[in-house]
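Per reviewer request, we include the raw input and output of the structure prediction for the construct analysed in the revised manuscript.
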Amino acid sequence: MKGKIVKGIAGFYYVNVAGSGLYQCKAKGIFRKEKIKPLVGDEVEIEVLDETEKTGSLERILPRRNELIRPAVANIDQALVIFAVTDPKPHFNLLDRFLVMMERKEIPVALCFNKRDIAKPEEARTLREIYVPCGYPLILASALTTENIECIREVLRGKTTAVAGPSGVGKSSLINLLQPQAQMETGSISRKIARGKHTTRHSELICIEEDSYIMDTPGFSSLYVHDFEKEELKHYFREFRPLEGHCRFNGCSHVHEPGCAVKEAVEDGEIHRVRYENYVEMYRELQEKRKY
């Protein structure tokens, strides 16, 4: 039988098979031997062991369209990254690292900033000034007042979306507004695990309406951008691309060379300084990595 992994926790994989329901599966030993880790979102083949108890064995993972390491998910159409406008204030460097990861995987991203109800107008304005020119859809929302919840729902419609963000920004509150049954479904799956409660952090696929799924992923506190060469990094900042070839030197890194079109655009206010400074910090990290 073919299905989709909707949750993985404590060595169990919960596979939804259309028309048949949810099966609790263990992965065959071959996966561990070959160091293949099943991911939430994987399309898989399972062998049913007990139809009454809805248990099975995970036999095969079908080819993935894409995969992410953090959050650990597969076969997503887009990512919705959630931060707060304030309390806590957005960590722009962390956000830009996530955007670099998604650009590298060619996964579209929409940005959502929660807690607009307690934000100052200038805080919301700053977010627009930084990210709207980059071409990222940006939604200012409030889980408390339900402002722009329908806008979020429209962005998610018809897609499988990885929802990610740091702790404390109201991610769970927004998800519960989009799908009030989410908490109940989580509890139902947890009760199927014989060993009781688990504190393992996990990703989970939640259906919010027909053909629309969200993957609720654990919060992240740090992202390291170090699995590619520093020369690649500039290609993952969208606003740099129109200026490619306009610098004095071919292969300009946009960091220390004179006659750099990107640096001139920063000085002219065409590229936001926050984005550029985060680029330079990541570039220097990659430069240090090469020394070792």
